[in-house]
Amino acid sequence: MIPAADPAFRAQLDGLELIDHPVQLRLRSRDFYWYSPILKAELDGKAADLIVVPRTVDEVVRVAAACARFGVPLVVRGGATGNYGQMVPLQGGVLLDMARLDRTLWIERGRGRFEAGVRLGDADVLCQKQGWELRMFPSTRRQATVGGYVCGGAAGVGSIRYGQLRDAGSVLALKVVTCEPAPRLIELRGADIGKALHAYGTTSIVVEVELALAPAYPWVEMVAAFDDFAAAAHFAQALGESDGIFLKLDSLMAWPLPRYFRGLEEGTLPEGRHVVMIMVAAGNAATVRDLVRGRGGTVTLERRYVEDRAITPLYEYTWNHTTLQALKVDKTVTYLQTIFPLGANVEALIASHEMFGDEVMAHAEFQRRQGRTNCSSLQVVRYSDEARLWEIVRGMETLGIRLSNPHSYILEDKGARVLSADLQLAFKREADPQGLLNPGKMSRWTAA
Ligand SMILES: Cc1cc2nc3c(=O)[nH]c(=O)nc-3n(C[C@H](O)[C@H](O)[C@H](O)COP(=O)(O)OP(=O)(O)OC[C@H]3O[C@@H](n4cnc5c(N)ncnc54)[C@H](O)[C@@H]3O)c2cc1C
Questions:
Q1: Contact present, 406 and 398 (Cβ < 8 Å)
Q2: Domain end: 387, 403, 419, which one?
Q3: Does the CB atom of residue 158 touch ligand 1 within 6 A?
Q4: Domain check: are 86 and 121 in the same one?
Q5: 117: Cβ below 6 Å to ligand 1?
Q6: Domain count, the chain
Q7: Among the atoms of ligand 1, which is closest to the Cα of residue 323?
């Protein structure tokens, strides 16, 4: 009998919301790993044995205790919008669905505290009512949760001004539950946040997240089109470096990527032109218009940003939505995820565009990294086979562009994102001594 089906184990969960319908188990055990043909082959069919939907932190503690006592694997599910199968249970067991742990605890001057299952879009709207907003969010904000973002995400819309999620000061505190027969509740602050941040839930279960907030601004969405890729790339960098312009989004897409985009006003994406998608504080929109003109581009869209379900916001064409928009039209494409050399990113971007042409459609997200304007890239690739994909990666490496491998669910394969590997391994030994949390994702644990 699988441990999760053991009546004695089930008895420990009496009164909690449980789901064990096979269709639900299969559907809810998936994220967006299917972007990758490699992960699709590896992960299709993997599923939890039981879903538990806790409503309180006490219920989370009960589930963690039961799993630890019976040796049952436990994987946490936020909005299931991860790209690499981070929340796909590799060894069955319990999937802890955080959807109902969704209370906003408080919002005050520049800080907000949320239960882990609060959706980021909802958190942002609540903050805005009090004159604040999230510093950054992933383009999946409508589905993704606060807990899933800090455990699986990295950056996003807002990173051009506020940097990365892992930058000190972005996340102020995490409350976590350990996976032990008598689970502990621990408040992580300062450098200790790294014990759980971007750890894919392998070290503990995050139940509360305290985030730094930004003052709310009225935003304008803009698209600028350029005939020449190099001109577009230099413009995007110059825009990101313009300290007087308050930005939220600075995304570059090479033609023919815009050909895949549906739902924008007529004339926004002119045939054959490379585009930069921008969100700028309303007071700076005129300055951006001047900068576009000065660099030989044309503003093809300018509209007030409103969060309205009937309108696709510009950010849903950017970050990893760019790949999704392409996949909606052409199921044969896949993607890469790369990091650019600081100070030489624009040159590397232009050189890679010239090296691969339309086979690797350039897409760069400009953002602050280590205090400077840089970009990372989610290039959309016309996929032929795995051998060619790695050949492209090697070609990129000759230009100083490094892979943050999106075709792997292993935590340590994400390169520069894994800053706290030693800290996380040590914390896992203490907080999850049986290795039940999201087993198979932390390779250092498996090796140890
Ligand atoms: C179209 C698209 C666009 C995207 N754009 C961005 C982007 O702009 N920036 C970005 O960083 N990412 C992006 N992503 C990836 C992903 O959407 C985000 O990282 C998102 O924040 C994940 O949140 P989630 O609630 O969906 O987490 P999930 O996918 O449910 O979980 C992510 C990981 O965290 C773990 N986890 C979730 N909740 C908890 C918890 N409470 N405690 C412990 N572990 C937990 C899961 O087990 C899993 O390992 C994108 C993905 C897609 C498909």
A1: no
A2: 403
A3: no
A4: no
A5: no
A6: 3
A7: 1
Per-residue pLDDT tens digits of the chain, which is 448 residues long: 677 778 999 999 999 999 999 999 999 999 999 999 999 999 999 999 999 999 999 999 999 999 999 999 999 999 999 999 999 999 999 999 999 999 999 999 999 999 999 999 999 999 999 999 999 999 999 999 999 999 999 999 999 999 999 999 999 999 999 999 999 999 999 999 999 999 999 999 999 999 999 999 999 999 999 999 999 999 999 999 999 999 999 999 999 999 999 999 999 999 999 999 999 999 999 999 999 999 999 999 999 999 888 889 999 999 999 999 999 999 999 999 999 999 999 999 999 999 999 999 999 999 999 999 999 999 999 999 999 999 999 999 999 999 999 999 999 987 645 567 889 999 999 999 999 999 999 999 987 7
The pTM of the full predicted model, rounded to 2 decimals, is 0.97
The answer, yes or no, to whether any atom of ligand 1 lies below 6 A from the CB of 85, is no
Domain assignment present for residue 81? The answer is: yes
Question: Containing domain of residue 235, as a range?
Answer: 219-335+338-403
Same domain, 52 and 189: no
Q: Give the Å distance between the CA of 34 and the centre of ligand 1.
A: 15
* Tally of CB atoms within 10 A around 228: 15
Same domain, 74 and 110: no
Q: 334's torsion region: left (phi>0), alpha (psi -120 to 50) or beta?
A: beta
Name the burial class of residue 192, with classes exposed (0-12), middle (13-18) and buried (19+) by CB atoms within 10 angstroms of its CB.
Answer: middle
- Residue 395 has which token pair? 């070609």
Continuous segment of H or E residues that includes residue 95: strand 94-97
Return d(Cα 224, Cα 139) in angstroms, integer: 20
Is residue 427 in a domain?
no
